[in-house]
């Protein structure tokens, strides 16, 4: 099918990929999650689009990551957008590790791994519209706060527009949707990771003990698949999975476009990182943002015993369509 040319207009903040992201400080806080809830969400949001094509996604681990990133400089590397300028952004979200497999003769065979982001919050509208319209990041603008540096103290928080209880009389309001706090100050240890291989080996050891060895309900029972996820970190490509869709103007129960997209985030330079102290996480219940139930979290107040931070440069590469409904 021949696609029409994109019509650029004044005020258009959508930037063409690849997108260069420099000076990113990223924190990941790992928490347990129910495999049944994760499977239900992935079936409804990804497999509803891809299953007919033979691709079926499953959760990799009974785990979710709450990821908070501060990106110093973001810009397009594709002319003419590469000549327009740059911006900084903060980007907080829930990341779910998934495996894409193929189904043949009723048997599912695991293949490539990836990360699915059912909730993403950013602090500027350009990051929101580029993420949504180009890739399918399910981004929402929000006020995002975080410590000034990995070795500092302070809280992470998301203030976002939400509806706490659905009813005809409910007004959407900006609320404190999530807070993560630690009473301990992070020190920069002498053994901080100097390279991505050090980071991958250390994370594999901790992940194996906390989320893999004792998990009886893993969707994927193969060590190689889990190791592949960390090998992707080492080789520089982190696959990401998106549900990209737009509601139909005439029939609001339908989508005028719907697709599952995969795109790799390519690691360009790793500056360092280390484990964080445990953090307490508080999530405000809201009907518009059922984070706890959709992501299978243990409750509104949970604790991340395992987390880490890293500093890096990376490139968000163009995506490819896995399956689409048009």
Overview of this protein structure:
- This protein has 326 residues and is an alpha+beta fold.
- The chain has a single domain, classed as Acetoacetate decarboxylase-like.
- 19% of the residues lie in helices and 45% in strands.
- The protein contains 5 helices and 14 strands.
- A 7-stranded mixed beta barrel has the order 1-3-4-5-9-10-13, surrounded by 4 helices.
- Strand 4 (87-104) and strand 5 (107-122) form a beta hairpin.
- Helix 3 runs antiparallel to helix 4 (223-235).
- The longest helix has 17 residues, at 196-212.
- Residues 215-220 have low confidence and may be disordered.
Layout of secondary structure:
Blueprint: E1 19-32, H1 35-50, E2 55-59, E3 63-76, E4 87-104, E5 107-122, H2 125-135, E6 139-145, E7 156-162, E8 173-181, H3 196-212, H4 223-235, E9 237-247, E10 255-275, E11 279-283, H5 291-294, E12 301-304, E13 306-316, E14 320-325
Parallel strand pairs: 5-6, 5-9
Antiparallel strand pairs: 1-3, 1-13, 2-4, 3-4, 4-5, 6-7, 7-8, 8-11, 9-10, 10-13, 10-14, 11-12
- Report the mean per-residue pLDDT as an integer: 89
* Discrete helix count: 5
Number of strand elements: 14
Under CATH, the homologous superfamily reads Acetoacetate decarboxylase-like
